[in-house]
Amino acid sequence: MSVAPVGRWNYALRTVVLGGFVALLGWGAFSYREMRVSHERELAERQQRIDALTADVASRDRRIEEQGREIEALTAQVKQLESALRLLKVDHRLARLTVLEQRPGAPAAGTGSPGATGSKPTGGVAPDGDAATETDVAFQELDDDGLPIGEERRYTLRGNVAYVDALVIKFGDDYVEQGDALRGSSVCLFRRLFGPYQKPSEGFPLDTAGSRPLPYAGADEDPGFESRLWQRFWDYANDANLAAGAGVRAIHGEAPYIELRPGKRYLVELRASGGLSLRAE
Prior knowledge:
It contains five helices and ten strands, in the order αββββαββαααββββ. It has helices spanning 3-88, 173-177, 223-231, 233-237, 240-245, and strands at residues 91-104, 133-141, 153-158, 161-171, 187-194, 204-205, 248-254, 257-259, 265-271, 276-280. The protein starts with a helix and ends with a strand.
């Protein structure tokens, strides 16, 4: 075997090996590039998904934050409404009426009952009460804590029913709901106490007409405001514009009454947004 054919064979073999190596390198480079491109594409897609999720989470966080603020605002409104409702329903104790004694009396024939000083107011017979009964009562004004203010007053009523006549000023609900210092509650001036067999005009006097009621005498908030209302009570009652300018919703007289039972005590109360009531303790 000659040297020349062997050399050619070796050269061809080297060429084949080198070509294969080059092809292998090329395939490896191509595969690496494809893998890298695929990996970068996958990373980009993952990043897009992460960005989308991040944006979604941020959007949810904003919605949760907005909902939290809305809940806080609604909670504040609910509390305000609850507070307003509580203020509207507040009952202020004004006085206590105590039955000291109840006894049979002489049948009435158009005459009234003797008063605290022994005088006998006269009047027509009313359909309420028992004309053959006399009832001794004690009237005591109270503060909001139920503590006595002023002197206790005692009267004898003909019959077993007591009427409490009063002037009442009711302010607009907005003032009451907000707890306004001057108009946060209805106010009342007691006029007189009388039984069914006694003329209302000749009932036993309680508060002085035009004066500031005793329960409000110690208040610091502009006593002149209420004094003006009491002094011009019927002017405000007959002038809607004048009343509205003072925040007054209603202004009129009231005379609740109740049948009296021996040994019982009765509270005279005034609702912040309403009028007078009489109830047994």
